[in-house]
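User: Fold both of these, please.

Assistant: Here is the first one.
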Amino acid sequence: MMERRHCKAIIQWDKDKDTSKFPLNEWLRDIVVIFGEIVGKIIHGDAWTVLVRVTEVIDETRTNADVAFIVDEAPWHLLEPGYSFKLWAGSEIATVTIL
């Protein structure tokens, strides 16, 4: 995969995710950022696919990671330091805080 513009983040995973099972330094796919709201399992608003690369496991629920959008049209302001957003993969799975 071509190297993408990415930023550093801390990810707080939902308690049912085992962070020790995430591969280190490999881009995880099929994760989206919801820019709107979720009612039931239906997304109302925009959703952008992101890549997440876990770089270090901090503890059972937190990891350091790189986060990148896969399209240039994605809202890059979401990757500003201090910004937080939810990750979705069929259900809400984590909260990302950009460093």
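And the second sequence with its predicted structure:
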Amino acid sequence: MNEESEKRMGPAAADHEEAPGERPAPADGESTPQGPPAPDDDSSGTGDAGGDTKPEGTAGAKRPWRRRRRTYIAAVLLLLFLPVLTAETALRVNYAGTPEPGTRTRHKDALWLGHAWVDGRKTQADVTALARRLKDTGIRDLYVHAGPLEHDGTLPKSAYSRARWLISAVHAAAPRVRVQAWLGDKLASEGPDGLHLERAATRTAVVASTRQILATGFEGAHFDLEPLHSGDRDYLSLLDDLRALTHAHHALLSVAAHQIDPLPAFHSFWGATTGHPKWWSQAYFGQVARRVDQIAVMSYDTTQPLESLYGGYVAQQTSLALEVTPDTTDLLMGLPFYHENRFGHWARAETVPAAVRGVRLGLSRTDADRARFGVALYVDFAATEADWRAYQEDWVG
């Protein structure tokens, strides 16, 4: 698997969801062609007493219905777009204000690393450069792509053949940094292909694969399984089993999480109209957060077209997540360290400065003093110097 493909099966924004497939976008500029407009006046109406009258069924007789139809269409469009306009306006307002001075890194940040770090493509020189990059940042955890899992839940050791070397090299070059195994797979939640969480044998195999990865020396297991629908009880059962395992090994259990409903029950509406719910309910997010040591929100791929709207969306997501994440769990908000233009993600809008400002605003308004909080940078192989500089200046300070 190449690194570009990791993004769609890795933390994706949930459409990658899929960061553990994409929705086709309509062609820009396409619209339904319109015919010539009906005349606004009747130049052939009734004349003098001896004049002709229009026969029934002509264009003149149909004109009132055409006007009513246009009025009806306009009303329907207004009903459809008014809630969207209202919501977008609220996001813009949410982006206003000044973050609290103390809303900076708590040194609990994380970075997603691509598969090249464990398959032999990276060298000691790369580790040295990485350690230099991480110095004086708030990054505590590395999520290193060590999968993907097979659809039956197993994990071939060939997928992470250089893991022991990497862990040892990172510990020597950056002793305070922890190395976790990032494991993911496509779920069979919207089609026949993928990992079936509803099968007990599959969940058992995932636990066995985690035991196998911890024995390699990883200090935690980070899961990104997508698309994961809100309310999935099999996922919660898997997390219970995984946490028992990781705690017995004094290791961490972390997950990449879908975004939270921006409007009440929005995932249900979106699922009914598109077949892809995308969001989680806030209550379900809390259920997941209570079962893990770290939860990283994939707060990108939001469809927002402007920086101000994206930043306001991130501020909202930060507040929603803070409200239901227990103080014993690290909450991390994802930062978009990648640059793509497609349906769901616009690079001009989803920027690191906008995301950091949104994170700080949400933190300021909801729980400014929360200690177990950070940001997660997605992803190393797509990041630019501008991304790193914005993270350093706007978040680390």
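The longest strand covers residues 178-186.
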